[in-house]
Task: structure prediction
Amino acid sequence: MMEFLARLVPARWRRGVPVVPVVRLTGAIGAVTPFRPGLTLAAVAKVLERAFTVRGAKAVALVINSPGGSAVQSRQIFLRIRQLATEKNLPVLVFVEDAAASGGYMIACAGDEIFCDPSSILGSIGVVGATFGFQDLMRRIGVERRVYTAGERKVTLDPFLPENPDDVARLKAIQRDIHAVFIALVKERRGTRLKGGEDELFSGEFWAGERAVALGLADAIGDLRGVLHARFGDKVVTPVVAPQGGLLALLSRRSRADAVNGLPDAALSALEARALWARYGL
Result:
């Protein structure tokens, strides 16, 4: 009788069964519109907290598939994962799918170990900014740009005005500061596992899985099921911790569907996300 009742209990609640909750972090980081919410701390905080509080968890597995995006949101997500790992004293195992590049790799560094596929893309430890220049088009169609500011540097890198070398120099200085933060984070987390020279590792270049492992950006080639079964046994349970549904989620989706004015933003967001993935040939 007791054996029969035990079978009715979900596997992850049974005594002695190893549990490793899984969280998927997918998409561009920080790009948010009503139709295309990106990865942000606000979007993933509750999911992460639920994963780290699963009863009997032996570790937390993160499945990452991201081409990068906002440096701030990437670091905020990284910090939250490390805070929870320390508070709950749980190891974090990261599994890279198509890509953990740029900000996606920053988040991957929250893992105590990083596994990837031979065809995964990892790295791109750098900072990029892009815009357009329309000043010649404006002149051809006879449109004059008029900008009024209080503060001589209030307008910089205006795509409708000729490029100002001073503006570019200021932008590059900011990018160097952000790049230095990224480099320090990677060095702190990967430490002596890094094998390449700094000029190579931190140039913004990216690599496929085998080369990333050789450079110390990842620890081994491996998939989630294979690694977890080898580490915790064939009975390991891997519940996927996803955002909660219910009435609030339904209302949220309905409000997005009603946001007709958000269609232009959604189109631009889709193009931006496509450009991020295309940067890595994906």
